[in-house]
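Ops channel
N.P.: pipeline sanity check, posting one input/output pair.
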């Protein structure tokens, strides 16, 4: 993989890990949980067969019942529903103190072969903050569109006229905004500052809205167009995420070369494939070859282009995730 791609991946990875190394607010925690998508499983499944779920993430609510920190590693014991687990972390967030009730997102490590003996902390938050925010969201009946308006970063008017104004990105999205923007600039140095703002905001906002990891969308767009807004394939696929004309119309995208519309359509489409198949490789195969081809062959079609595409996007995504 070219060094510029690896360097850009490192930018996103470093800033993302920095964000994860602290206690999150209720909003930040909920947004992160939604972004994990198909990687999020339930604890009972993880406990029943840990070796088949290595790399997956589950959520727990429990009480801290002891912790230790020394050198470059730390760990704590989480007690919940008559059970307990030991979770490791590079640094303990401030919410991890004896007696505190917290929410955690935990990744199953490679050492969890016969039992959940290798658990790694992804994020933690006070249970009170998350529960309070969940109740507020559940009681709210107001439906709003995601509008990528950035604090102190003006999105070009041509991209906001079809979106509601006045909505800002979440605090977590704002924390990683510059890292994503800098990475995208490395992918395509020819993008103008306004284009960079628009593309970055759209990826973060719509990924959060549809509950998809924005790093996956970066990987997909990089594989599709190298972040060229005017890209057109020999088959007629258009824009950043290479939407075919019929697909674009079905998604309500009137101008596939508009970054906001293109990214929104891309993420909505990928979300539907993930919901249907529950598998990233199959979802990517559907995106590339069409759902009909995946159904016909009962899996990834035997097309060299599609197989290479799935491998390429997955490889970039793993780099962005630090795997």
């Amino acid at each position: 993989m070219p060094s510029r791609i690896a360097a850009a991946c490192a930018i996103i990875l470093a800033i993302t890990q920095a964000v994860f190394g602290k206690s999150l607010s209720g909003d930040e925690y909920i947004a992160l949980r939604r972004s994990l998508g198909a990687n999020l499983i339930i604890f009972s499944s993880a406990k029943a067969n840990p070796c088949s779920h290595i790399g997956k993430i589950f959520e727990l609510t429990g009480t801290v019942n002891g912790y230790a920190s020394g050198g470059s590693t730390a760990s704590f014991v989480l007690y919940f529903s008559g059970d307990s687990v030991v979770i490791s972390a590079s640094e303990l967030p401030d919410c991890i103190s004896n007696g505190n009730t917290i929410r955690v997102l935990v990744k199953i490590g490679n050492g969890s072969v016969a039992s959940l003996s290798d658990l790694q902390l992804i994020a933690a938050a006070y249970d009170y903050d998350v529960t309070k925010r969940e109740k507020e969201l559940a009681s709210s009946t107001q439906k709003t569109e995601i509008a990528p308006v950035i604090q102190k970063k003006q999105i070009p008017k041509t991209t906001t006229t079809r979106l509601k104004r006045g909505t800002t990105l979440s605090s977590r999205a704002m924390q990683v905004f510059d890292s994503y923007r800098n990475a995208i600039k490395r992918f395509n140095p020819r993008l103008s500052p306004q284009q960079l703002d628009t593309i970055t905001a759209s990826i973060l906002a719509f990924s959060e809205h549809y509950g998809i990891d924005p790093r996956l969308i970066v990987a997909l767009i990089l594989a599709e167009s190298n972040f060229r807004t005017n890209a057109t394939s020999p088959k007629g696929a258009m824009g950043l995420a290479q939407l075919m004309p019929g697909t674009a119309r079905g998604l309500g995208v009137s101008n596939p070369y508009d970054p906001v519309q293109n990214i929104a359509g891309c993420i909505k489409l990928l979300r539907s494939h993930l919901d249907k198949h529950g598998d990233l490789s199959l979802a990517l195969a559907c995106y590339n070859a069409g759902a009909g081809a995946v159904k016909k062959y009962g899996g990834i079609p035997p097309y060299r282009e599609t197989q290479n595409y799935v491998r390429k996007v997955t490889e970039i995504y793993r780099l962005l995730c630090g795997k």
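N.P.: looks fine end to end. Strands lie at 40-41, 57-70, 73-80, 83-89, 101-108, 119-126.
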